[in-house]
Amino acid sequence: MMKLYYGPGACSFVPHAGLEAIKAATGENFEAQSVKLHKGEQQTPEYLALNPLGLVPVLVVDGQPLSQIVAICDYLDRRHPQAGLLPAEPWQRAQAMSTFAWMNNTVHPTFTHIFRPSKFASTEDAQADVRNVAVATFREHLERIQGMAAKAAPFLLGDKFSFVDAYALTFLRWGGLGGIDPASLPVYRAYVERVAAHPAVAAAMAREGINLDTYKPK
Ligand SMILES: N[C@@H](CCC(=O)N[C@@H](CS)C(=O)NCC(=O)O)C(=O)O
Questions:
Q1: Residue 218 banded pLDDT, cuts 50, 70, 90
Q2: Is the CB of 196 under 6 A from ligand 1?
Q3: What is the pTM of this model?
Q4: What class does CATH assign to 2-83?
Q5: Mutate-to-test residue for ligand 1 from 4, 5, 11, 210, highest number of ligand atoms within 8 A of CB
Q6: 198 phi and psi angles, rounded to 5 deg
Q7: Helix, strand, coil share of the chain (percent; to 5)
Q8: Looking at domain 90-198, which CATH architecture does it have?
Q9: What is the best residue among 39, 53, 56, 111 to mutate for testing ligand 1's pocket, by most ligand atoms within 8 Å of CB?
Q10: Is the minimum distance from the CB of 4 to ligand 1 under 6 angstroms?
Q11: What b/e string do you get for 107-130 counting C-beta neighbours within 10 Å, with b at 16 or more?
């Protein structure tokens, strides 16, 4: 059975929601193992043997670990194309991967600067500056995604839920944690509420114990 190592609320939500969609479409079940990032469980010798980078997600297939969200999701889609988690038609697939890659290599690392500024600067002042600049940049990324959400029908790639919807949901939750009020992105928020109502997404959120309500006004 495939096994996913995930951190509640982390980027691993993307393959987690995908695995739930695959379970619903094909009946293939999976094991889900929570890794508590705030407790440093990603740094245990056992976990580092799976992913020496000490990051979630890891998908274990036939005893072999696979890391990196884009690679994991591409694998899941090729294993179960009938789940429709990425388009099959080459050009549409390439366009989907273009959005997915941007989310993974640009939007996601921007949030890392908010969440872990100590990775990018050593003094407290510099870290506060890194964080503030990253919050402004992250907001620009969320506005770009809101532009995509305005055309969602009802999902970003059309009528089917896909990995990029799970990523978009994750980013709006993270924005709330970073002090960005989702009420200031109403089109994005309404779209994410639709995504959260998808049964596979709801199942993954329930297992992770997360909701959309991450923003706390100061
Ligand atoms: N490029 C990696 C990024 C993975 C990543 O950043 N994971 C974060 C959670 S969203 C993590 O495990 N952080 C733990 C830490 O920084 O100690 C991927 O696509 O899988």
A1: confident
A2: no
A3: 0.97
A4: alpha beta
A5: 11
A6: -65, 135
A7: 60, 10, 30
A8: Up-down Bundle (1.20)
A9: 56
A10: no
A11: bbebbebbeebeebeeeeeebeeb
Task: Fill in the DSSP letter of residue 103.
Answer: I
Q: pLDDT tens across 62-76, in order?
A: 999 999 999 999 999
Domain layout of the chain by residue ranges:
2-83, 90-198
The pLDDT of residue 89 is above 80 = yes
Q: Which residue's CA is the nearest one to ligand 1's atom 13?
A: 55
Amino acid at 217: P
In angstroms, the CA 65 to CA 117 distance is: 29
Record the tokens describing residue 204, joined without a space. Answer: 């993954």
Q: pLDDT value at position 217?
A: 85
Span 135-147, pLDDT tens digits: 999 999 999 999 9
**Coil, strand, or helix at residue 31?**
strand
117 lines ligand 1 (CB under 6 A): no
Strand order across the 2-6 sheet: 30-34, 2-6, 58-61, 64-67
Residue 156's pLDDT band (boundaries 50, 70, 90)? Answer: very high
Give the atom of ligand 1 at the shortest distance from the alpha carbon of 105: 1
Q: Would you place residue 59 in the very low, low, confident or very high pLDDT band (cuts 50, 70, 90)?
A: very high
Among 53, 55, 116, 167, which residue has the most ligand 1 atoms within 8 Å of its CB, making it the best to mutate?
A: 55
